[in-house]
Specification:
With 390 residues, the chain is α/β, with parallel strands linked by helices. Helices cover 51% and strands 11% of the residues. The protein contains 13 helices and eight strands.
């Protein structure tokens, strides 16, 4: 038996006006200081004020939120006792909101103990809304929560199916001001979600559709949004691609690009979208070299996105080349070396990178599961920017 979960999605011009329909008395907004500074929080609170919903802002979320931040949020939400929790920002803010709302009903819970096997019933007290201000993570359409164990330099993949947001609001005004670098970082995340979700061994025909559309829209509209942030059509289509990518991989699973990217990001503190986008073509080459099944799936994406025609292997390789060309066009690193990481420090980190990647569930949802030896080679090839030939 399979399930497909997604929130109520409110999208397009004026989507924030949906807040006027919300039934509630108090909202707890989980965000970061930059979102407040940019005035995006006020766009939300103005709507809440108009319908006499009280609100409180918790703006201490940092990139890749730490366990300690979630605990602070848990204390604050416990004092405020809202009936709505709103994750406002990028994936970090939305993930933090998902974790913090659980502490509303379980203040004793250690954040790293969140488990998919437990039932929390937080909706007895509050409902969950997500309003993304980037177009990338798809966190507004998944129940996954990524937190950081700063003491051990480890990213933790947590969550429970209960943490699927009730409502996701996609208003282009919230992403129109994204600078080019963040547009590129988060856009590569969209593409990685779409492609890895489509080829995941846990995928089904129900998850395929959103993944295909997300891949096509990202390939077409990311360069446009990067070059001209005022291109509202591109902004809207990237918002749609992000949530579709989340719906795809969130109901199937991501893959090796995420396993390797999480490991690199945890140790060297590089943004999530940049690291997974960096490893996507390398891990695709690895799968092409050892799996006819996944090669055929990549070929389906390439044909649907009008990247190439021909044999499965020709199309799959053309898709890899297209991804590398896109990354270059939007100023993304094509190798680990391009990230400015010292070679000696990187070499020292290889055992830790392998250990982290091996402990990611996403390493197991591909048709060619690597062991330590192959992972080491992938990490070393990616540093030099060398195509995978094994």
């Amino acid at each position: 038996m399979w399930t497909f979960s997604c929130p109520l999605i409110v999208y397009g011009d004026g989507a924030l006006e949906y807040l006027a329909q919300v039934q509630g008395k108090k909202a707890f907004i989980v965000t970061d200081k930059n979102i407040v500074k940019l005035g995006l929080t006020k766009l939300v609170t103005d709507q809440l004020d108009a319908v006499s919903i009280k609100w409180e802002v918790f703006d201490e979320v940092e990139p890749e939120p730490s366990l300690n931040t979630i605990k602070k949020g848990g204390v604050a939400i416990g004092k405020y006792q809202p009936d709505w929790v709103i994750g406002l920002g990028g994936g970090s803010c939305m993930d933090a909101a998902k974790a913090i709302i659980l502490l509303l009903v379980r203040p004793d819970l250690e954040p790293d103990a969140l488990s998919v096997t437990e039932t929390y019933n937080f909706r007895a007290k509050a409902r969950l809304m997500c309003i993304p201000t980037t177009s990338g993570t798809g966190a507004e359409a998944t129940w996954a929560i990524v937190l950081t164990d700063t003491a051990n330099d480890r990213k933790l993949g947590l969550g429970t199916t209960e943490c699927m947001p009730d409502v996701a609001i996609l208003d282009p005004v919230m992403v129109a001001g994204m600078p080019p670098l963040i547009t590129a970082d988060t856009g590569m995340d969209v593409l990685t979600h779409a492609i890895e979700g489509y080829v995941s061994t846990w995928g089904t025909s129900i998850t395929d559709g959103p993944g295909l559309i997300a891949a096509r829209q990202a390939l077409e509209y990311l360069p446009k949004a990067y070059k001209n942030g005022n291109d509202l059509e591109a902004r809207k289509e990237m918002q749609n691609a992000a949530i579709l990518g989340g719906m795809s991989f969130g109901n199937s699973m991501a893959g090796l690009g995420h396993s390797a990217g999480h490991a690199l990001g945890a140790i060297f503190h590089i943004t999530h979208g940049r690291t997974v986008g960096l490893f996507l073509p390398y891990t695709m080459e690895y799968l092409i070299n050892g799996s006819e099944e996944t090669t055929a799936r990549y070929a389906e994406i390439a044909r649907f996105c009008r990247v190439a025609s021909g044999s499965d292997k020709e199309c799959a390789k053309a898709l890899v080349a297209k991804i590398r060309a896109l990354a270059k066009e939007v100023g993304q690193p094509l190798s680990v070396k391009d990230c400015g990481i010292d070679k000696a420090k990187y070499d020292e980190s290889i055992p830790g990178l392998i250990d982290r990647a091996l402990n990611e569930v996403m390493t197991m949802t591909v048709t060619r599961v690597p062991g330590e030896e192959d992972l080491e080679k992938i990490f070393r090839y990616a540093y030099e920017g060398k195509s995978i030939d094994f």
